Structure formats: structure tokens, C-alpha cells
Amino acid sequence: MTTFTALTTLEGRDSAYALGDAMERLTPEPTGVGVFEMEDGSGLWEVGGYFEDAPDETALAVLSAAMGAKPFVVSQLPETDWVAHVRRELAPVEAGRFFVYGSHDADKVPEDCEPLLIEAAMAFGTGHHGTTLGCLRALDRLATDGFAGKNVVDVGCGTAVLAMAAARIWPETVLASDIDEVAVEVAQANVTANGLDGRVECVEAAGFDHTQLAAAAPFDLVFANILKGPLIALAPDMAAALQPGGYAILSGILNEQADEVIEVYARSGVNLMHRESIVDWTTLTLQKKT
């Protein structure tokens, strides 16, 4: 069956969500509508709809003009087995000792690795994105150098792949938090699928603003794979939540944004130890002054 997409961009979160709501009232109705902040530092939001019938392009033009968005780009999609397509594209990923895979590749898991099962439907956080891959490599590097995390938190955890990776190699319970309720549910499902119930605790929180995180601080390792803006805003709280000598692994940072993030954290006494760029993205390993 041929299907259709309609995509546009505009400035402002509230305007983007208002446009997404308006799209849901179109005739023919979209099967789904998505609103996403673009990760290129532009400040733009992408709004898209998926249609089983050809959308009303006149109505889309009226909506985009009314909301100050760019004209919608409508595309026709051929019939595709998307599950098979995603599985082909998302081959297992090796990041040091870690092996991230979907259940369809369970027969490929090596014996001498730390396996992390993340289904292909959850593409961000599977290890294929340069930010997640960079964080896993940074964790592997710290562990190889002799660091053993005793009090670890993954802030903005998404699929919880980083929290689970830490729980695979160290015996203490790891905290995983996310501001999004659905992300927390996904994280918990992944924890259960990996047999890590009781080893990773998932909570809904904005940054460090949660009683369980406050009680657990200070941490000797914090993951924060989010975006430049939230990372910069989080710098004072991150410094306060880290114990002296503790590490922070940060990503979601475009290569050209890395120096600014490094400078902001240095002003809070959390200094650069290592940086790695993978395609467009940089991962930073920082350490709080002792």
C-alpha cells in the first residue's frame, strides 16, 4: 500500500505543538503526527504527519502559512516492510566490551562481551547514533583504566542503554532518569528485557530534581546524553551532584558546540579528560576537581 508523509519546520516549541494538534484535525486524518526538536543547533522544530491517503495539500498550505512554518513537503512512500528494513539497517554494534543488538540478532552475540538488548524499533539509543556509541566507548575506556563506578546515574536516559551498560560491569544499583514519562516506561521495559530488574532503577525527573537522586548524590559517574542547551543549563547542578574526582560522560553535542560545553563545565570545576568525535557528534569525559 502506498502511503504519504508531510513534513515542515518552524521556530518555537509551542508553535510546533500547536501545528501538530491542528494536523490531527485534517481530512483525511493522518495516521500519526510527530513533533521533534531538531538536533542541529538551529532551534527549529520538525512537524510531520503520516497518511494512508493522499493529504489535502491546500489545507496543509493554509496551516503552514497560519503557523509561520515553511511549506509542507509531501512525499509518497512505496509499500515497504519497515520491520525488515529496520532490522537490516540496524546491525549489532560493538563498543569496546559492549555488544548492542536486537532480538533478531540474538544468535550473533559473542561469548566474551557485555550484551545489551535494545529492539530495533527504538533506534535512538541502540548504539547506532554517534552520541550513544561515544558514551559506551567512554564508559569502556574508564573501566579499562581501572575506574569502578559505585554510585552511577544516567540523566536523560532514553532507552537506559548507558545505565544498563554500567550495571553489566559493576555490582551496585544504577539510577536512570528521564523527563519524559514514555521514555521512563521504555527504559523500564528494556531493563526487564535485559534481566536487570533491581539493578537499574528508573525514575521520572527533570535533571537531578528528584528525591531519590538527591538522596543518592554525590555520584562518582554521571551520564548525560542529551543536547547542548540542557547540558549547559545543567552544569551547576552536575557539579554539585558529582563527588570530588567523579566523572561525567556528556554527549548530544555537535562537534562545533563542544568547546562551549567544555568551557561552561570548567567554570564549575568539572574539567575535560577526553573527547571523541564520531561523524557530527562529540562525546566528552569530564572529571570534577578533587
Largest sheet: 7 strands, mixed
The level of helicity is 25-40%
Gap from first CA to last CA: 61 Å
- Sum up the overall morphology in one term: globular
| Rounded mean pLDDT score | 88
From the alpha carbons, calculate the radius of gyration and give it in angstroms. 20 Å
Write a structural description.
The structure is a single chain. The protein is an alpha/beta fold. Helices cover 33% and strands 31% of the residues. The protein is built from nine helices and 14 strands. The strands form three sheets. Strands 10-9-8-11-12-14-13 form a seven-stranded mixed β-sheet, sandwiched between helices. A four-stranded antiparallel β-sheet has the order 2-3-1-4, with helices on one face. α1 runs antiparallel to α2. The protein is globular, with a radius of gyration of 20 Å.
Overview in brief:
By secondary structure, the chain is of the alpha/beta class. It has 9 helices and 14 strands.
Keywords:
about 35% helix; 9 helices; about 290 residues; seven-stranded mixed beta sheet; 14 strands; single chain; alpha/beta; globular; four-stranded antiparallel beta sheet
Show the helix and strand layout.
Layout: E1 3-11, H1 13-23, E2 32-37, E3 44-51, H2 57-67, E4 73-77, H3 82-89, E5 93-95, E6 98-101, E7 114-117, H4 130-144, E8 152-155, H5 161-169, E9 174-178, H6 181-193, E10 200-204, H7 211-216, E11 219-225, H8 228-241, E12 242-254, H9 258-267, E13 270-278, E14 281-288
Parallel strand pairs: 6-7, 8-9, 8-11, 9-10, 11-12
Antiparallel strand pairs: 1-3, 1-4, 2-3, 5-6, 12-14, 13-14
Helix pairs in contact: 1-2, 4-5, 8-9
